[in-house]
Amino acid sequence: MKKIHLELNENQYKKLVESVFLGTWMVNSTKMELDEDFEEVRELVLSKYKEAELEDKINYQEAFGIHDLQMDYEKELFTKYVDEYEEFSFWDMLIEKLSEKRLKEEYGELTSPLTEEMIERRLQLEEEIGEKLEEQGITNLDFK
Fold first, then answer.
1. Strand partners, 66
2. Measured between alpha carbons, how far is 42 from 20 in angstroms, rounded to an integer?
3. What is the C-alpha separation between 49 and 55, in angstroms, rounded?
4. Strands 66-69 and 58-61, bridge-based pairing
5. What is the Cα–Cα distance from 85 to 5, expressed in whole angstroms?
6. Distance between CA 52 and CA 45 in Å, rounded?
7. d(CA 15, CA 9)
8. Rounded (10°) angle between helices 116-136 and 83-107
């Protein structure tokens, strides 16, 4: 297999560590078993931490034979990226699912691809639902 070599400065390496950590977390967070291909790449990237002088952010867990992020660094990444993503995704998906439900009530089972009329109606519903949620918040969401 052909090998690929990268030259990174310390800041680029740190961003690669963050990207690999976040990507691997996203892939594995919903699975019962880890995706070994992602884990292999994660381990390879994290194993170079001493070259980038990131001993304060990454450590080697000898008992498990793996490299891992320090808990504070991991928490920092979750706070900076994951929390914001989940908050945005939640509202976006809620609006999407509620508008899809209303669309099915109006048109019956949806075809794929949606007709132009259905697409226009869906966009209208998403805007209406989004505005309503923004005005009233989730605590005033009512199911009838």
1. 61
2. 6
3. 7
4. antiparallel
5. 31
6. 11
7. 10
8. 130
